[in-house]
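To illustrate the input format used throughout this study, we show a single complete record. The first block contains the structure-token representation of the backbone; no residue identities are included at this stage. The design step must infer an amino acid for every position from geometry alone.
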């Protein structure tokens, strides 16, 4: 058996990173702002309830069809004036390659959730000190998007009056959109602005790029939102400007996290400082 040594306060302080937000004072607001180790059961429950609430509110927004179609016409005319109205050409080009468009349909329907949840799990396991702040960005982004759905109903390109866009899910009979086929009555079809496919994918991409240690994984993080942008346009679910709206919502989310924690999520300690201090006081063998 080896000798038992206990670290003194002076020694253990040397090896423990200080949090960006120092836990001084005993106020409840101060304590809430200090990154803490996430609890698995609470996070699962929080994410499930939050997404259910988001879907409920999003679908409860009145489907203002007339206004949504007028807004779509206005967006299309604006893009034509800006010289960026190429969504129809992209939509038709991709639709001509069956395997490609079918793949994009499934991409649109699945990766939006799979990748986002995957990044949350990775943060929970590998970056617990940054998890809460990064999750706050995602929640604030999604919350402000609900305001956009209410204030600015917008029809996607595939539902425009007199448009020549192709609803790729309907044409190729793939399961790929809650707003197509038999599922359309379960989702608000006129909530295209802002695009949360872009808001969430850019959140994923920036998080991976900022925190991943493997270079090719960081590159994939940047590629993912670019591919998502191509997919949402090619499947006629969004205009380019919907993507801009999604990025603006994400900027709001990062602003909320910065105000709350006093730093952007990637600048916070990787581990939870309080937990590190508790482990440092535990007897260790020489």
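Output of the design step:
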């Amino acid at each position: 058996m080896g000798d038992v040594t206990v670290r003194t306060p002076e020694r253990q302080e040397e090896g423990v990173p200080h949090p960006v937000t120092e836990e001084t004072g005993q106020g409840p607001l101060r304590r809430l702002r200090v990154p803490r180790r996430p609890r698995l059961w609470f996070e699962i429950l929080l994410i499930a309830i939050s997404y259910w609430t988001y879907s409920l509110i999003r679908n409860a927004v009145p489907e203002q069809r007339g206004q949504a179609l007028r807004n779509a016409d206005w967006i299309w005319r604006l893009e034509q004036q800006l010289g960026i109205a190429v969504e129809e050409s992209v939509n038709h080009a991709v639709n001509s390659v069956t395997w490609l468009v079918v793949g994009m349909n499934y991409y649109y329907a699945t990766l939006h959730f799979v990748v986002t949840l995957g990044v949350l799990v990775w943060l929970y396991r590998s970056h617990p000190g940054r998890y809460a702040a990064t999750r706050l960005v995602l929640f604030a982004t999604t919350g402000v998007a609900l305001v956009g759905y209410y204030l600015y109903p917008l029809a996607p390109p595939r539902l425009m009056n007199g448009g020549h866009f192709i609803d790729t899910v309907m044409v190729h009979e793939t399961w790929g959109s809650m707003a197509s086929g038999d599922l359309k009555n379960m989702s608000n079809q006129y909530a295209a602005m802002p695009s949360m496919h872009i808001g969430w994918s850019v959140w994923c991409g920036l998080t991976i790029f900022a925190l991943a240690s493997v270079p090719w994984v960081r590159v994939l993080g940047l590629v993912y939102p670019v591919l998502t942008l191509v997919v949402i346009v090619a499947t006629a679910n969004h205009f380019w400007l919907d993507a801009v709206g999604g990025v603006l919502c994400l900027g709001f989310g990062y602003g909320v996290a910065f105000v709350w924690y006093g730093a952007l999520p990637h600048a916070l300690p990787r581990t939870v400082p309080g937990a590190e201090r508790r482990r440092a006081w535990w007897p260790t063998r020489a």
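Structural context for interpreting the output: The longest strand covers residues 4-5. Residues 1-26, 276-286 have pLDDT under 50 and may be disordered.
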